[in-house]
Design the sequence.
């Protein structure tokens, strides 16, 4: 039983292309997140969603557009990919922060922009 | 903005020794103090957490201690084993939807 899943696991693409990453959680959580982990292992929050609504957008370029069709899914679409977008992208979910804040991470999507 | 720092950034210990990692934060509203472990090529996973009304929590070989006045909390690992080698992150929370992860500490346990 996979709690938080992401596809694809690996993504290699050319600069300027558009790509999407999908995330699904079967934990019944209300809240989902996207994180970016760079080559130095810094984990930075990009977006937080609660019950399909965007709550946090951490000054991410608008080439990144998250979409939550329902509270179990949070997808990330990236337009006009740049070299600096190369990183590992993690999706995560949790119960509402006011209830329990443990975050459950997906396996990550390794994006390489050439 | 909020700052979350970890020290040291890298730590090498001999198998069987203890390891301590410290997390310093600036948001005085923080009330939830977790530690995550990320093994090479894997996802971060929670290993222990504590709430602000508790000063210390222990789970077998790992423990977390909190000093809310000084705004820091620490991860203690005793009797370290090679499988403890990983990157460890703190991520203090304040009941909002924004989490700032610490800068990470790479722990190497030498056999």
Sequence:
């Amino acid at each position: 039983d996979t709690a938080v899943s992401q596809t694809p696991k690996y993504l290699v693409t050319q600069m300027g292309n558009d790509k999407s990453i999908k995330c699904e959680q079967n934990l019944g959580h209300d809240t989902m997140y996207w994180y970016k982990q760079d080559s130095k292992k810094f984990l930075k929050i990009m977006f937080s969603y609660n019950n399909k609504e965007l709550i946090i957008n951490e000054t991410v370029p608008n080439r990144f557009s998250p979409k939550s069709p329902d509270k179990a899914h949070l997808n990330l679409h990236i337009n006009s990919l740049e070299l600096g977008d190369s990183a590992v992208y993690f999706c995560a979910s949790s119960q509402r922060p006011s209830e329990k804040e443990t975050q459950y991470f997906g396996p990550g999507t390794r994006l390489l922009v050439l | 903005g909020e700052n979350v720092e970890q020290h040291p950034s890298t730590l090498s210990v001999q198998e069987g020794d203890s390891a301590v990692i410290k997390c310093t934060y600036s948001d005085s509203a923080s009330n939830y103090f977790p530690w995550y472990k990320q093994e090479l090529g894997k996802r971060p996973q929670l290993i222990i957490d504590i709430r602000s009304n508790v000063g210390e929590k222990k789970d077998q070989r790992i423990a977390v201690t909190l000093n809310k006045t000084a705004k820091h909390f620490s991860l203690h690992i005793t009797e370290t084993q090679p499988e403890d080698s990983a990157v460890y992150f703190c991520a203090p929370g304040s009941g909002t939807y924004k989490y700032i992860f610490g800068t990470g500490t790479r722990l190497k346990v030498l056999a």
Remarks:
- Chain B touches chain A at residues 32, 34, 36, 38, 42-46, 49, 87, 89, 91, 93, 95-101, 103-104, 106 (CB under 8 Å).
- Chain B has a mean pLDDT of 94.
- The radius of gyration of chain B is 13 Å.
- Chain B is about 0% helix and 50% strand.
